[in-house]
Each structure stands twice: as structure tokens, then as C-alpha cells.
Amino acid sequence: MANLGFTHRFEPREFASRTLLLLHGTGGDENDLLELGRALDSQAALLSPRGKVLEGNAPRFFRRLAEGVFDEEDVVARAGELSSFIDAASAEYKFPIQNLTAVGYSNGANIAAAMLLLGVAKFRSAVLFRAMLPLSRIDVPSLTGYRILMLNCSFDPIIPLPNAQRLGQIFQSAGAQVELRIQPSGHELTTADVEAAREWLRSQRVE
Ligand code: MLT
């Protein structure tokens, strides 16, 4: 498998309904969310890169200075890098980029959010599990036509709910169709998250 700038996995699917771009959380890797991807849409091809930033031994998609405090210059650079990887992967594996949906968890959701806010997202729809606002100074592009499901929690010790709500409002003000669901759980994914995301993806499917 060619590297294309990121260690990654690509799982093709014959007559794929879509391609899911799987973006893991801190300490995850390219294998982490494959099972989740299959559970969310068994008909989807899966593209799963490993974040290139190391915090100790833990891969991430961008550098942070402390928990919830991000190196924003790095966020911008890494968002661009990941965007180029998606183009390269689409050419290499011949999946249509217009059918790409991002599925990110925690740090992976944050890089997906950054790509949307910076106008470099190649995906038009996204499922963001436990996302927060990754950038403070942003001139958000139009996100009309983009569809975003955010799944956040009232008892998340890492992501303050008002922060996630603000991200949702920014997406919405930019024209995206946003659904923010707040679950009565914590930072870890639950079966309720998986079920909600699966239903949402099903409702978005273009046959
Ligand atoms: C981040 O660093 O992106 C967020 O704090 C979530 C995390 O990865 O812990």
C-alpha cells in the first residue's frame, strides 16, 4: 500500500455506498476505528490515516500545548496536509470524493472540524464524536450544503459542552445543516453514539 504521506489503511468495498474517512482520537492509530466504520455503514469503503504528531508515544492529528489548548499554527498546517492526503488517496484508490464522509472521534473530530472551518475539507458531511472548537481566529467559509452530526456529552470532562455548542453555532451560521445531540454520558463512545450515527448516516444516504 502506497504511503501517500500518511500511514493508513484503505478498505475497499465493491459498489460502495460512500467512503468513510476515519479519524482516531489521541493515542489511536489507523486500525482503531475500522470496526466502528464497519458498524456505521457496512457498505462503505474505509480510509483511515494515522495522525502524524506524536505526544509521547500517542499519535495525534495536531500538536497541543495542554489539554484543550491547541497549537493553532500546527492545526492549520496539519489540516492542509490531511486535505492533500485525501486528494492523493482518492486518486490512488479511485473513490469519488463527493461521497466522502468524515467520522472523527475526539482529536480526530477536532481535525475534521478544523478542516471544515478552514475551507479545506474534502468531505461534505461529517460525524463528529466529542468535537470542540479547534481554532480561535477564524474567517469561516460558506458551509452551505454541508451536513454535520455532532455527538457531545453532558458529562465529558475533556470537552466543555458550551465549547461544543459554540462550534455547532459557528457551523450553522456558516450555512451548514447541523445536528448537535447531547448524550448523558462522558468522553468515551457508547452504543447510543454508534446507533445515533448509524441512523443519521442512513438518513443521509443518496441511493
Ligand atoms: C484534543 O486534543 O484534540 C482534544 O483535547 C481531545 C483529545 O484528544 O483529548
Descriptive account of the structure:
The strands form 3 sheets. A 7-stranded mixed sheet has the order 1-3-2-8-9-10-11, with helices on both faces. The protein has a two-stranded antiparallel ribbon with strand order 4-5. It is α/β, with parallel strands linked by helices and about 210 residues long. It is built from 5 helices and 11 strands, in the order ββαβββββαβαββαβα. It has a single domain, classed as Rossmann fold (3-Layer(aba) Sandwich), CATH 3.40.50.1820. D-malate (MLT) binds next to α3. The site of D-malate has 9 residues, from α3.
Write the layout of secondary structure elements.
Elements: E1 8-11, E2 19-23, H1 34-40, E3 45-49, E4 53-55, E5 58-60, E6 64-66, E7 69-70, H2 72-93, E8 100-105, H3 107-118, E9 125-129, E10 147-153, H4 161-173, E11 177-183, H5 191-204
Parallel strand pairs: 2-3, 2-8, 8-9, 9-10, 10-11
Antiparallel strand pairs: 1-3, 4-5, 6-7
Helix pairs in contact: 2-3
The site of D-malate has 9 residues, from helix 3.
Task: Describe the structure using short key phrases.
207 residues; alpha/beta; Rossmann fold; 7-stranded mixed beta sheet; two-stranded antiparallel sheet; 11 strands; 24% strand; binds D-malate
